[in-house]
């Protein structure tokens, strides 16, 4: 919206003037509560006051000793854990809110993601995929958080949230069709592998640029808030935005948190702090107390949880959703402490910047799948035979889905020119003609047998 100088007018008159220029502006409803509330601009410093009353710090006490605050003098924020690495509950108030069947289903979701990651990683090494990113070590963060959200909640993922998609209903066929970019891929083969999306599941399509989903999530949450203000009959919804600690070094992260805090947007920011942003250890990324301390700096309710603890992640997300919907909406930040067991992607060799023994130690000592399994075994709902049966069955299902997807034809070649404009523009038609002439000139240089319609599809 173009800024308009409205100095000298009353706030209500100024708002009406802007509304006349912008029919999309929603005028606030003036209530008795709002009439009694002073704006921040009306704050004044009273004589002999003991506290700062400036708009930027309204609760800061005056002191007469000059002292610079040192981060090292403050203890690190604690990390919430409900179940320890032995599968034993350590939170005395923790009570599981899921049936045995529901827990087993979510555990199988975590197993499915883990097994699929191993198979797809190998498939990329065989040249059957162009790219892949695994989520080994982070399965509890994605499945646990997703299990505490409602299906109507809107989600923005980064690129390591296979568990979120799986928990919400993404099938193995959905995964494979996108990975191999066949004609059943909703994205029509235009995105890189692992850039999933689902309108039906309320998950926005993943995009590669780091952290761009965060301000988008804040904006979407603000839209949901306004939508419900205009129509209270709409069920309350929140937005969940996933990102890694490396993305928190981007400017978009700070813009997103500030927007969400000042506009009181119902959004849950979920950070996977897995120790490394591609090849940069966290100690080289920042000097502060993780990502959680940044949420406090923006005035956002924040919690740090053990990301290897499925139950801690789920409990924190349940509470975060309640908080996000309080008082008309507000943001919440969850920092989940995990460890990235595998390489950043198939384009990365993590042993170039970390010791192999470090990775193996994390695999052996503590990982989210093993911890939830121990908890289930302690409850008598799981054993070694069920584990073997589940792993064998899931492996067969993944391999079959991958094989089926590979046999599907590719999207029509013409599709690369479509869906940008309602009708093809002259320059796109010229490009399509140029491609057709090129294929006709060199028919033996290209194998179009796997492409739906072949060269003829360019004439349709």
TrEMBL record:
Keyword Transit peptide listed: yes
InterPro entries linked: Alpha-ketoacid_DH_E1_comp (IPR050771), DH_E1 (IPR001017), THDP-binding (IPR029061)
Reactions the enzyme catalyzes: N(6)-[(R)-lipoyl]-L-lysyl-[protein] + 3-methyl-2-oxobutanoate + H(+) = N(6)-[(R)-S(8)-2-methylpropanoyldihydrolipoyl]-L-lysyl-[protein] + CO2
GO CC list: mitochondrial matrix
Alphabetical UniProt keywords: Metal-binding, Mitochondrion, Oxidoreductase, Potassium, Thiamine pyrophosphate, Transit peptide
Subcellular location: Mitochondrion matrix
Database matches in Pfam families: E1_dh
Domain Dehydrogenase E1 component, chain residue ranges per copy: 108-413
Polar residues: bias regions: 31-45
Keyword Metal-binding annotated: yes
GO biological process terms held by the UniProt record: branched-chain amino acid catabolic process
Assigned EC number: 1.2.4.4
Gene Ontology MF annotations: branched-chain 2-oxo acid dehydrogenase activity; metal ion binding
Cofactor(s) it depends on: thiamine diphosphate
Family from the record: Belongs to the BCKDHA family.
Function: The branched-chain alpha-keto dehydrogenase complex catalyzes the overall conversion of alpha-keto acids to acyl-CoA and CO(2). It contains multiple copies of three enzymatic components: branched-chain alpha-keto acid decarboxylase (E1), lipoamide acyltransferase (E2) and lipoamide dehydrogenase (E3).
PANTHER family assigned to the protein according to its UniProt record, in alphabetical order: 2-OXOISOVALERATE DEHYDROGENASE SUBUNIT ALPHA, MITOCHONDRIAL
Name the UniProt record assigns to this protein: 2-oxoisovalerate dehydrogenase subunit alpha
Source organism: Schizothecium vesticola
């Amino acid at each position: 919206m173009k800024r308009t100088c409205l100095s000298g007018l009353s706030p209500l008159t100024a708002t009406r003037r802007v509304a006349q220029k912008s029919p999309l502006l929603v005028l606030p409803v003036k209530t008795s509560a709002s009439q009694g509330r002073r704006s921040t601009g009306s704050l004044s410093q009273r004589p002999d006051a003991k506290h700062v009353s400036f708009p930027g710090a309204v609760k800061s006490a005056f002191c007469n000793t000059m002292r610079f605050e040192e981060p090292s003098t403050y203890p690190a924020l604690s990390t919430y854990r409900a179940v320890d690495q032995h599968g034993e509950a350590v939170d005395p108030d923790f009570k599981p809110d899921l049936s045995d069947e529901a827990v087993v289903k979510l555990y199988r979701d975590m197993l499915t993601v883990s097994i699929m990651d191993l198979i797809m990683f190998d498939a990329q090494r065989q040249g059957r995929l162009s790219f892949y990113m695994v989520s080994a070590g982070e399965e509890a963060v994605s499945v646990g958080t997703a299990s505490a959200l409602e299906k109507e909640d809107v989600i923005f993922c980064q690129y390591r949230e296979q568990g979120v998609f799986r928990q919400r209903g993404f099938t193995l066929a959905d995964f494979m069709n996108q990975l191999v970019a066949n004609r059943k891929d909703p994205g029509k083969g235009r995105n890189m592998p692992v850039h999933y999306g689902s309108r039906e599941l309320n998950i926005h399509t993943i995009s590669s640029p780091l952290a761009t989903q965060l301000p988008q999530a804040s904006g979407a949450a603000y839209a949901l808030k306004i939508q419900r203000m205009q129509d209270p009959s709409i069920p309350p919804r929140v937005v969940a935005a996933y990102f890694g600690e490396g993305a928190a070094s981007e400017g978009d992260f700070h813009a997103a948190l500030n927007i969400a805090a000042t506009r009181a947007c119902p959004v849950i920011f979920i950070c996977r702090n897995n120790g490394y942003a591609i090849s940069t250890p966290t100690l080289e990324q920042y000097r502060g107390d993780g990502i959680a301390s940044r949420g406090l700096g923006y005035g956002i309710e924040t919690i740090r949880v053990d990301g290897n603890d499925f139950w801690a992640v789920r409990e924190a997300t349940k509470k975060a959703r309640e908080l996000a919907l309080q008082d008309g909406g507000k943001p919440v930040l969850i920092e989940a402490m995990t460890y990235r067991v595998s390489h950043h992607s198939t384009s990365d060799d993590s042993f170039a910047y970390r010791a192999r023994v470090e990775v193996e130690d994390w695999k052996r000592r503590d990982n989210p799948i093993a911890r939830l399994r121990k908890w289930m075994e302690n409850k008598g709902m799981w054993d070694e035979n069920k584990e073997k049966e589940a792993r064998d069955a899931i492996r067969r299902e993944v391999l079959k889905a991958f094989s089926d997807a590979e046999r599907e034809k590719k999207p029509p070649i013409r599709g690369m020119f479509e869906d940008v404009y309602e009708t093809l523009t002259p320059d796109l038609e010229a490009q399509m003609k140029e491609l057709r002439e090129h294929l006709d000139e060199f028919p033996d240089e290209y194998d179009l047998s796997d492409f739906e319609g072949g060269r003829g599809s360019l004439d349709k």
